[in-house]
Amino acid sequence: MLKRIPRYSPFKDKEKFSAIFSENVKYFYVVLFVLAFFIPVFIPNKYVIHTFISVMLYMVLALGLNIIPGFTGLLDLGYVGFYAIGAYTAATMTYHLGTLGPPWGFLSSFWFILPIAALNGALWGILLGVPTLRLTGDYFAIVTFGFASLVELIIINEMWLTRGPMGIIMDHKPVMNLAFMYPLTKHFFAEPIRFTLVGDAPFFYILLSIVIITIIIMNRLEDSRLGRAWFAIREDEIAAECSGINIMKYKVIAFAISASFGGLAGSVFAFWFMFTSPESFKFWESILILCMVVLGGMGSIPGVILGALVLTSLTEVVRELLDPWPDLVQARFLVFGVILIVMMRFKPAGLIPLSRVKREMGSRDKSIIDAMNESFYKFKSGKG
Amino acid sequence: MVFDQLIGNFKLGIDYAIEQLINGINIGGIYALIAVGYTMVYGIIELINFAHGEIYMLGAYMAFTFYVMLHLPFPIAVLLSIFTCMLLGILLEFVAYRPLRNAPRLAALITAIGASLFLQNLALIIWGGIPKSFPEQTLPDFFQSPIITIHGNANISLLQYNIFFITVFLMLGLHLLITRTKIGTAMRACAQDKTTASLMGINVNRVITFTFAVGSSLGAVAGILAGLYYNIIKHTIGYVAGVKAFAAAVLGGIGNVPGAMLGGFVLGIAETFGAGYISSPYRDGIAYAVMILVIVFRPSGILGRKQTVKV
Q: Where are the transmembrane segments (chain B) (predicted)?
């Protein structure tokens, strides 16, 4: 009914910053990943590597969730359900099939389970998506919430499959031989660094490559016909349908892809953490991932990466700060609640907003809009 | 094995069924009281107020604080708790929802989730993670003793009777408020069309504040009743009860007050019968499953009308 009145923004420079950033985002990625590559080399601290692994795990999760609220404009509160399905695919397969003997040994290997978990996630995404995706926003959010809660209940109660609240302990980590790295580093260090299975280092590299692949896939998706269809659905569902977009088909595809990333991250989590229990897949985990997407900027890939980085580090910081009061560690979610409220109130487009979203939600200054518009197309067409 | 259990359960007989029915009506009454808050807010501003379950939880905690910690008489503690929750509901609307009145619905929904997360963890910080309960002598003895006995086994105590009675009484009051008073008419007008209502001289903001106040106070009553009935108050009770109450609101047709009452009772009875006869670990799952099935197959609910999408 009433038009939203544009607010005066004294921070014009920030908008310039985000414009510069979005033009040079490719170099930013490259620098980031070159830096990330050497983290286990320069900081061989177990805690630091552990934190970075969880940061990257949440990056994959947040990028996967981003497809639903960011690209198609639906709210998915049950993402943790797919995460749990992926983790339990890995855990139950190693637990029940791990003892089958030599010819079937591959059934419990990491590299076999990884795609299976992703496919299982996608399967459940489709099974949930087909009947529910025709619902409008709020109802859809509630149904996904119900789905995640049902997944949790089934995991707790189906003892024969999942061992219920006791959880499943994994007996092996994936093997990744990085000995070939040795000649590269022997010039820099007096002592040779053993890359073969030192603590969490192999997992660091596995996750780093998964993150890079995820980002590449997301970037390609965003620019593809599929991505354009999703954006059209997000902007105006009815108009998109009138333009000949098969809404259901594209929504189900979005849901399946999003769920498969959840399942993939879940299986990696199971293998990394070596212990899978229902405690890790509470409903609030979904909200934490949603929080990352919202903080970074829904739909904006660099934004979501930043959001995951900031919030996972924040979780660690808050946990450290609250260490003297073990009762309060659980209450750290309070911070995330405040972040959700404050972001929606003051910066609904996120820290690094999509130029498109920014034009809708932010300043109405025409010159900035034009500049953003231009840079957006330059960036997208690769001329910039 | 499951079938043996099922057959065994059916052999438990009529007394068991009546007990389940009574439990269901009680739990349903509590759900109905919360569901009314959801449905009224949804009817007017089309927002699922996720934090409403947290108001219910805080209602129970407030009554506990005023009664056990500050040693006030129980009726005064109850009234103070209702009043505090009313203020909290108004504050919530003012701080979190009002600035987003014209924002996209996704933004408002995320804010509501944030508010719920905030309140739940605030309660965890204030009252700690250990469950609290009202002391034994909160209500006089005669509330606990059975007043009606059926077949010698199914007992109804006065407390259970009172939950039903209080629920029905409050619902009746709410119905009269909505249909007979001026502010009730204004609420119905706003639910119909906010813009036109404001053109007719209705202060829409005041109506929305009033709606939040009424919904929150009913939620607080539900919280106190549940605290007495289950005798356990924890910071997590709000979100489970909130979702079930939302399921009840959807079941009855969201935006429809009599529907929310009916939905609450139906869901409560379905849940206790499901827990008693099918599988008690899946007690919460039954509510979620009912909710998903209703949303998928009949989103307008039992009493709701089918809405067409306007282009």
A: 20-41, 53-70, 76-95, 107-130, 159-178, 207-230, 285-304
